[in-house]
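Risk register update: the risk of archive-format incompatibility is retired. Evidence:
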Amino acid sequence: MSIDDLEQEISDAVTHYWAKLSDQEEAQKKSENTARGRRAEVVGGEQMDGLAGLIEDALVDAGLPRDAVLHDHDAVLPGYYRATKRWDIAVVVDDELLAVMELKSIASSFGNNLNNRIEEAVGNNTDLYQAYQEGLFEPSPTPWVGYLILMADTEKSRGSVRIREPNFEVDDEFKDASYIDRTEQLCLRMVRQRLVDQAAFLTSPKDGGIEGKYNEVNPELTFSRYLSSLVAHIQSHMDYEQPDIQDYESDSAE
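Archived output:
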């Protein structure tokens, strides 16, 4: 991973996110002016495009062809329980699926939105792995799966959430937990249950976010760790030389 100033790049992407939400054109232009590579084209569209472009740049810096990084409508893949799913990012090289990613955010209505994000993440990744097991991505290796989420740091997202327990007690980790705490648990548990290879969780305050302020609440869920894991996976595939089958058959015959 050769992004020179990763913290500044993340900060620019966070500025872009809040600028898109608030339509602050001046802040958005400032973010775009610091963009690298294709990010000059990517940012200015969707709220998470700054982070999507940063991920793409890291992969290109690692030697991946830029056109191998697919976004949105180009990142449609077959599913098992449904016909297709449009991912936020898919990496396809020589007709092999190497990585898939979802980039999500929550800035309001934390309860409903977080529940929706949880159901989507668990369902999407379960569907993807089943599709892989059924051979729908042949001859692809097991794809690297990533999940990134940015949550607004507000009084509501930081406050303890009241829980109703009319029948059974909930998991202790969720008692007195905030929406930020719950999101942290989502990311950690998806990593530890192998639903994703790596997750990243960023928070950003509404007032300072437009200036690029952000926080990483858990050292296991940092953006740098996310990128390092992804780049290492891609590079291991690129460095691997497929053996010549004919030569192998000849050697076996001898």
